Amino acid sequence: LDIVLITLPFIACWFGYYADKTVVALSAMDRWLIVALYCVLYFTFGRIYDAFLISYSRISEIVYSQILETLLTDCFMYIVIWIMSGSFPNILPALGALLMQLVFAVGWAVMAHRWYFAMFPSKRSAVIYDVR
Known about the structure:
Layout: H1 2-18, H2 28-48, H3 59-85, H4 92-119
Helix pairs in contact: 1-2, 1-4, 2-3, 3-4
């Protein structure tokens, strides 16, 4: 669900503005491959920065990871769009999409954390260390 929520603003930005501005002729399938590339990058950065580990992380850590992976993915995709455009594209649509993505990331982190601990309440545990 997180990947879908974060990808929706990118799709709107890509198809609404940037896809028609490229100098490279793209078919409909090629345009959707750019979206697939975005999803793969977002998922990969999410795994690297542990953005999907709801049970281990605080909400603030999840939000930080989500923001970091969104920024990295958007920067990478902006460079790809820049290369395909042949000139420096307008950054305002990308910033608008980024703003919506950050709102969705915070909302998802809060809701996912609440849902997870409502479904799987924490159990009492003891940490024993310094014994082999």
